[in-house]
Amino acid sequence: MRHLMSPMDFSVEELEKLMDLAGDIEKNPEKYAHACAGKKLATLFYEPSTRTRLSHEAAMLNLGGSIMGFSSADSSSASKGESVSDTIRTISCYADICAMRHPKEGAPMVACRHSSIPVINAGDGGHQHPTQTLTDLLTIRSLKGHLGNMTIGLCGDLKFGRTVHSLIHALVRYPGIRFVMISPEELRLPGYIRSDVLDKKNVPYEEVVRLEDALPNLDLLYMTRVQKERFFNEEDYVRMKDFYILDAKKMELAPKDMYVLHPLPRVNEISVDVDSDPRAAYFRQMQYGVYIRMALILTLLEINV
To answer: How far, in Å, are 56, 72, 221 from residue 224 at the CA level?
Structure first.
């Protein structure tokens, strides 16, 4: 039995197969419409979510399976003090596979050690968000035609942004990747990722504060919101939340073939006047998220179509 805790759980070759499967699902949805008939997915979301929870549920429903679960800790026995390990033992009796989001780093890892069904990490604190990374990789490959040899700007909350952390881990395995880290001093990429991932693998990167300085040289811009839920006080959040706002005027500085991605939700870091720009790919990104999660569910359940 296999789990997904980190994007590193799949080799580059396995990721290619997963993305190829997602591509086939996109082209031939009817072929997979009953692949998971009789199977049940449990979504255990201890934190609020729109896209991640609903895309997992949509993925299972598209495969002909069924869904169950909870959308907040308050609506589960966690509110009574039940441990993650006891919850997953219980869910293992009801479902065939589960997706878990938890505010504490490492909670899905605890779950997989006590589970008798595959566990998907759907985000744990500021640590990892592997299914978003799979979505990002599929989106980039679909838009650009490849995953290597490009300069990627990562903008916003690089300190707490688990989507950024997971994406860096995944992309450094491809040749010719270069990063531009765009953030205020207070939200810089954690030192352990710079030293243990980028420096260790000799991946070139630079750190800048101004988005305008980075835009002309990017193949891809990955925007993130400043996450209110990760701040310890309101004052720091208010001071940081408007630091970057991508608008149509700034987009004039960017190359004609530079795509903009965002894991969403956005607050105000991308102006709505960017939405009509053909380079704005964040809503297409959400659709790719359903295809890759369908492929992931099939792979973890070892279902061949």
So the answer is: 21, 23, 10
Which of 214, 272, 268 minimizes the C-alpha distance to 238? 268
- Tell me which of 43, 52, 135, 139 is the catalytic residue: 52
Read off the tokens for 21: 């499967």
Separation CA 136–CA 114 (nearest Å): 29
Single-letter residue type at 192:
Y
Q: Are 244 and 211 in contact (CB under 8 A)?
A: yes
Tokens of 61: 């429903």
**How far apart, in whole angstroms, are the C-alpha atoms of residue 296 and residue 59?**
9
Q: How many residues does the chain have?
A: 305
Q: How far apart are CA 49 and CA 142, in angstroms?
A: 25
Q: What is the per-residue pLDDT across 249-295, written as a single tens digit (0 to 9) for each?
A: 999 999 999 999 999 888 889 999 999 999 999 999 999 999 999 99
Q: How far is the C-alpha of 213 from the C-alpha of 296, rounded, in Å?
A: 38
Question: Is 101 labeled as catalytic in the residue annotation?
Answer: yes
Catalytic residue check, 27? no
- Cα-flanking dihedrals φ and ψ of residue 119, to 5°? -115, 130
**Residue owning tokens 């990374």:** 133
Catalytic residue among 101, 127, 162, 225: 101
52 is catalytic: yes
114 in active site: no
pTM for the whole thing? 0.90
Task: Supply the pLDDT for residue 181.
Answer: 97
pLDDT tens digit sequence for 95-124: 999 999 998 888 999 999 999 999 999 988
Are 227 and 183 spatial neighbours (Cβ–Cβ below 8 Å)? no
Regarding beta strands 119-124 and 150-155, do their DSSP bridges make them parallel or antiparallel, or are they unpaired? unpaired
Helix (H, G, I), strand (E, B) or coil at 253: coil
